[in-house]
Structures are given as structure tokens and as C-alpha cells.
Amino acid sequence: MRGTGKADVFVMLAHPVGHAKSPGIFNEIFEQKGLDSLMVPLSCRPEDFDTFWAGITAAENIRGVIISVPYKVPVYHKCAAAHDRAARVQSANSVRRQADGTWYADNFDGVGFIDGLKAGGHRIAGRRILQVGAGGAGASLTYC
């Protein structure tokens, strides 16, 4: 049964968050696997981010957060440790809570995009590209 008092809670953070598909996708996976887990979409105004993040951190059953615009860089700076992918662009698209309660950042925007191109049969090596945008996702893509 999903969503009991013992559930692991995950958050999709964006502003606005109404466009986010992650909660539906993850909740379907949790249901299929019989996990007592759920993902909820949450948003806050950028000027309230520090207060919001303190609340997320205080909520002990929040295990991880998927991050979207405009929070990829600010969330990265709230983390105690990071994967090299996130550290080199100082941006996170996902964080997980570590055993000591601190956050660990990762950013797989770039590698996910490149893997998708390769899976679609697109040759990348030796090709020229035009990249428009260098925000959290764009910066991650640049380093792949």
C-alpha cells in the first residue's frame, strides 16, 4: 500500500510546477513496484526559497527532490556533497538525503540528453552543434 505514515516522500520542485510530469511518472512506478513511496509537486516563490528549503530539510521523511527551473543552482549550493557532474557546473537536477541528514547533489541533464541521442542512432563525435541556453540543464550538457 502506497502513502502510509511510513512512506518515503519525494518532491518535484519547480516554480511554477504545474507543467511537471515527474510526480505522475514516479508515482506510477512506485505503485507498480509496490513501494510505500510517493512524489508530490511543490513550488515556492524564489524569494521564499531559503525558508522553503529549511522546511524540506526539517521534514525527515523527504528522501529526495527532483529539481527544475529556477532552483537547480540554489539547491546545489544547499548540498554538503555532490557527484562530479553536478560539482563542475554547480547545478543539481536531483538531490538525495544522506544518512546524516545532509543533501547529495547530482545532475544528469547532460548525460541523459546525450544518451538519448545515441540511443536514437545519432552520431555526436566530431559533429558541430548549436546550443541555445546555458542554465542548469544547458551547463550540464556543455560538459558532456
How would you describe this structure to a colleague?
By secondary structure, the chain is an alpha/beta fold. The protein folds into two domains: about 10-105, Rossmann fold (3-Layer(aba) Sandwich), CATH 3.40.50; about 110-140, no CATH class. Helix content is about 35%, strand content about 20%. A hairpin with a 5-residue loop joins strand 5 and strand 6. The longest helix is centred in the N-terminal third of the chain and has 11 residues, at about 20-30.
How many angstroms does the end-to-end distance come to? 40 Å
Mean pLDDT: 91
The H-and-E topology, N to C, reads as EHEHEHEHEEHH
What is the number of independent domains? Answer: 2
Poorly predicted regions are: none
The helix count comes to 6
How much strand content do the residues show? Answer: 15-25%
What is the CATH C level class of the largest domain, in words?
A: Alpha Beta
